[in-house]
Design goal:
This protein is of the alpha/beta class. The protein is 44% helix and 14% strand. It is built from twelve helices and twelve strands. Strands 9-6-5-4-3-2-1-10 form an eight-stranded parallel sheet. A two-stranded antiparallel ribbon has the order 7-8.
């Protein structure tokens, strides 16, 4: 390991992140009761320009009045290139900042963008005397943001996660697609013809590079890498395929743009009982090997060593974290009879 120690972002559950338009109070109420780990209340793309002032009011009311216990709550502000952004930050943080966990900053292009929002949030927190510190989520969805990703990832101690915004990224890079995530039929190569003239088609993942780069930068800075949206909410298998490939690359969660995608994300990004059991066996085997003065041991015909311990510890810790979060969500969904549901406590 390097002598440089990387501080880790708060260990929040982030398997599923539900997008909810701030312009729809009914959706806000449903989101508070959903099984999503993180909910981001949207003031940007999902809200029409004329509806943005009312959406801010809806979100402030929802933060103050609804029970958000058992989940993390974020607000996606408008971009720094719009005149909506400053009022999003000022109104929401001043009036409900002590109930807010995260701010999601869209289309982050440079570290200076992060610095600007950090300055505003810091001054409001200090002026209001809030005890909690609001974290930042950054959506990487432009060529400029991808170019400056390393600087963005290290731009603020408030940083907690990086997200890949596939649709706007495709527009920014002028990619030949109109889909939101998923494969493209033209992104393939053909093998040379065999003796009978037959050729095989090899598909590729056109989003492999940006997601891999995002994961590297996120992990190098102690942040959570989160895969973005998958537009076809009527294709659960397609969603799971995209989620699994992002998980293999190192992402620990994915957006849900429809409630039906929450359970899919939670399933993909939760280790199975078999995986957790194997991880525990690895830890037990290595503990015994250390007692015997050995640095490695064979388990099920495979060599395991100190690196195996780290992998197993991550999985077991994740399983415990999930169990704790699901217990909290179950308690929220089934409050004691005769008692009013409590508001979310100030942090």
């Amino acid at each position: 390991m390097s002598f440089k120690i990387v501080d880790q972002a708060p260990a929040r559950m982030n398997r599923s992140e539900l997008a909810v338009p701030g312009s729809n109070p009914v959706f806000l109420e449903k989101a508070a009761k959903s099984p999503a780990d993180v909910v981001f209340l949207d003031l940007e793309d999902a809200v029409a320009p004329d509806d943005k002032p009312q959406a801010r009011k809806n979100i402030i009311e929802a933060l103050n009045d609804l029970d958000w216990s058992g989940k993390t709550v974020s607000v996606r502000i408008n971009g720094l290139d719009t005149h909506y952004m400053y009022r999003d930050v000022v109104d929401v943080v001043e009036q409900a900042g002590d109930k807010l966990d995260l701010i999601m900053i869209p289309k982050v292009g440079t570290a200076a963008d992060v610095y600007a929002v950090d300055m505003m949030v810091t001054q409001i927190e200090q002026a209001k005397g809030f005890k909690n510190r609001i974290g930042f989520e950054h959506i990487i969805e432009t060529a400029l943001g991808m170019q400056n990703l390393a600087e963005i990832g290290a731009a603020s101690p408030r940083n907690e996660s990086l997200h890949f915004g596939v649709a706007d990224y495709a527009a920014s890079t002028k990619a030949r697609t109109t889909g939101i995530g998923g494969p493209h039929p033209d992104y393939h190569v053909l093998t040379d013809p065999d003796s009978e003239g037959n050729r095989d088609v090899h598909w590729g993942d056109m989003w492999h590079y940006p997601i891999t780069k995002m994961v590297v930068v996120a992990r190098a800075n102690g942040l959570r890498p989160i895969d973005g949206p998958f537009g076809d909410f009527q294709d659960p298998e397609g969603y799971k395929a995209q989620a699994f490939r992002a998980a293999v690359l190192g992402c620990e969660g994915k957006w849900a743009i429809h409630p039906s995608q929450i359970a899919l994300a939670n399933e993909v990004y939760s280790p199975s009982k078999e995986e957790v059991a194997k991880a525990k066996r690895i830890l037990a085997a290595m503990k015994q090997a250390q007692k015997e003065g050995r640095g490695a041991v064979a388990l099920d015909g495979r060599l395991i060593d100190i690196a195996s311990i780290r992998q197993a510890e991550v999985m077991v810790k994740k399983a415990r974290q999930i169990a704790k979060a699901e217990k909290a969500q179950a308690a929220q969904a089934a409050p004691a009879k005769g008692k009013a549901k409590p508001k979310k406590k100030n942090k």
